[in-house]
Amino acid sequence: MGLFSGRMKQLQSVEGSRSAPVLLLLLALFSTVPSDVQGRGILSSRAFDSFRLPNNTVPTHYTLHLDTDVDRGIFDYTGKVQIRINVVEATDQIVLHSLRNVITNLQLRNSAQLAVPVKGHEFDEEKEFLVINLGTVLQPNSGSYTLDIDFTNSIDRNDQSGFYRSSYTDEQGVTRYHGLTQFESVDARTSFPCYDEPGIKTTYDISITCGTAYHARSNAPLLGIKLLPGGKKITTFATTPRMQTYLVAWLVSDFVYEREVLKQPQLAVSTWSKPSSANLLSYSVDASVRFIRAMEEYFGELYTMSKIDNVAIKDGDYAAGAMENWGLVTYRESAIFFNPETQTQSQQIGVVTIVGHEFTHQFFGNLLAPKWWSYLWLSEGFARLYQYYVGSISHPEHGLRERFVTGPMQNAFSSDGSPTIRPMTYYTDTRAGISRLFDRIAYDKSGSVLRMMSYALGERTFQKGLRYYVQQNKANGVVEESNLFASLEQAAKEDAVLPLTFSMHDIFGSWSNQAGVPIVSVRREGDEFYFTQTRFFAEPQEDPLDSSWWIPISFSTPSNTAYEKLPAFWMPPHVSEVSYTIPLAEGETLMFNPYATGYYRMSYEDTMLNELIQRLNTDHASVQPAARARLIDDTLNVAHRDGGDYNAALGLMSYLREETDYVPWVVAHENLRYLKTMLRGDEKASELLQTFTEQLATPLLEKYSFAKRSGESANDEELRSIAIEFACSASESCKSAALASVTVKSRSVRNVYGATDRALLCSGLQQAEVEERQGFVSQVSRMLESQPDDPFARKYIQEVVACTGEVLKGVRYLLELDESERSNALYRLIVGSNVTPGDLLQSLHSELSRRQSISINPATIPKVLLELSHYVTEPSEISLLTSVVSQFAPSVASEVNYQLMANRKWIERNVGPLTAALSLIVSV
């Protein structure tokens, strides 16, 4: 392999076109720089066999200056970074990260400000290292050194990463550009040379030069502005807290803001946007103020700085969705804007939860940084949980705790049945591997496991443990999972909520270091109940790892609710069977995990399951909504795995005719959509399922009707849209109403519709004649062209395109959507509009082939292909998907191949039994 596994080169080109004169100018510049920049030098014998930095030197402070001209539409910029470093072990090299930066000068000075000889520098392209070869050996404890690097770069890039450009069209039709950053996970290095690893925290002094008509914002508060010749100014910011490179952020723009200043302690909370959206910022400021104060009180810790900014970025230019940069949080416009004249509580909930997620990161992720990406869940899991749980404190009107069950927890269960899934704590060090850690395991499963531990210890004890965790680790600022476990154990032992022989390291470690989700099977002999646990796989197979967990078992009966949230006992790992005595009165039924507080599936023996089904069909309100939802999901998933008798599962779902609660219906909605997806190739089974879903949903539609009523909640509107979707699949009266809505709305297309209108419109468009669909899409497209920077208009046309099956446009927009929106869009295209996955793949291949000319984040591509793999069953489509994956996303090839195999086996195993069971239940 030699010294470097990647090809070496002296200078790296900056992505984006440069004219020949500029290139000649750069070449002339490089011919005049000191020889220590040009010379390749003598390389050390050390080989870099890891993507991790050697860390024989560490940074202790950065001083970073950038000179920009984005206000004039000039996208090149120059920079100067001074990095103060300490030497940890003797070395004749300094190794840090750099990519895309063209280095024009490089010097090293010792603590006496004397030059240290530099032989030259090299780039290891594969590992993205900048290797500086020295003419002497630096010794530890020899004082600090200062590394000065001058460089040039460009924001004219199309990957929506690093320091890049975005734009909007002003009211005069002029394109206005601005520059923003998105550094997580490993893209700070693409904008300035740095030690780009999450466990390396230090302080930053940042200053930015731009035109006087623009302004700069960064992590820390503004210190001052100095006017310069030539219509420019330099903005200087205060020193940041110690933080990791991926949180460094800045914005150069002409944005406007709305601000609220809090007292005791003082904190300025602002939201920034393009000028034309200034009327959409108030709700986000209010939500931010309410959440951050609730968060400070809950965790017993004050936010570090005196300001926090929210920044709204055009949806199509911001694949990340949102980013928790310390003090300068960025979002998609559609996630942070709220128009009180046209939008409903659903959008308010979206604003509260996204703000809550990013603000929770100010403590978990920023103040306490994961030591390496292996522990990403210590950041994302907390943010996912507390966006709902602290959000329920700051905004009690939105019922956010119950939405955790229907959102993150349900997402986690849906993903965690695959044998290719990873555990929460998982090591990787490549760019592609790190990018793939930002998945449902880091967010949804981790949040669900943290929630389970909160209930298992009791929320007050868990909260106490988290306060210990913050206070005991904030000085160092870098954490790994053992730090969390130790703090929780301290609180648990103080409050005597764990037996003395139990260890949180063992208990929590069994969840963080093993992949998958357990399924607890229970059988009854009198008042004695016997429990076994195994790993749940969506496809039947043996568990080669013999996975086993510490599981908190809770239960309730009509006469005993003492253990409905707290565990009655902990089921230990690697025990063949556990027994527990629960006295039951005559006729009582027993529900385990009755509030869905535990992250595990339940499988009841037939007698117990039938008793629960009878209870739901006679008095479903006697069972908690979350438990009803989990019973539906667990029973169906066990049936899918076993491919056996579906009579019990469908008999259970029959109670939904009487169900009006949000939680069970949302979980049932996901499961019924899955069935429609998998049965769509079998005409008889598909028709039977449509009739069944219409029978379930018609009473719900009768309750809510087609018209929105004043004072309705977000839950009410979502339930109506579910009822319309399912009832209109078979009900002629519903189909007629949906078709009529297309006719009415085609006369006056708007850019904002509520959930009810969207559901009716979508159902109607899927039934309309081709000409009517195309005409409606043309109208919507013209509306979008007239409002190119309206995020809600853009989201609306994306939804309409999916409902009409316009494949080419649909694929283009698929690449812009966030994950939940993309999942819905794919369902509407493939199941609702009968677009074949093959057609989508052909269009996607065409779009990706020209990706150098379109703006797309590389991390989006594997996510889209993985999502598509759930729909692919035909041999020709399998071949096409495999080809596209090998070309554009080889890192997910094994997962895609597994999913394709699972699709085929599911159909072979389940279509026959499902058809038979549906025939029986529909004819009743």
From TrEMBL:
Cofactor(s) it depends on: Zn(2+)
UniProt protein name: Aminopeptidase
Cofactor note: Binds 1 zinc ion per subunit.
Tree of life domain: Eukaryota
Membrane keyword on record: yes
Membrane protein topology class: Lipid-anchor; GPI-anchor; Single-pass type II membrane protein
Catalytic residue positions: E358
Signal peptide: 1-39
InterPro entries: Aminopeptidase_N-like_N, Aminopeptidase_N-like_N_sf, ERAP1-like_C_dom, M1_APN-typ, Peptidase_M1, Peptidase_M1_aminopeptidases, Peptidase_M1_dom, Peptidase_M4/M1_CTD_sf
Domain (Peptidase M1 membrane alanine aminopeptidase): residue spans on this chain: 283-495
Binding site for Zn(2+): H357, H361, E380
The EC number(s) this enzyme carries: 3.4.11.-
PANTHER family named in the record: AMINOPEPTIDASE (PTHR11533:SF301), PROTEASE M1 ZINC METALLOPROTEASE (PTHR11533)
Keywords linked to the UniProt accession: Aminopeptidase, Glycoprotein, GPI-anchor, Hydrolase, Lipoprotein, Membrane, Metal-binding, Metalloprotease, Protease, Signal, Signal-anchor, Transmembrane, Transmembrane helix, Zinc
Any one of the GO BP annotations: proteolysis
Positions of the Aminopeptidase N-like N-terminal domain: 58-247
GO MF term list: metalloaminopeptidase activity; peptide binding; zinc ion binding
Site (Transition state stabilizer): Y443
Subcellular location: Cell membrane; Membrane
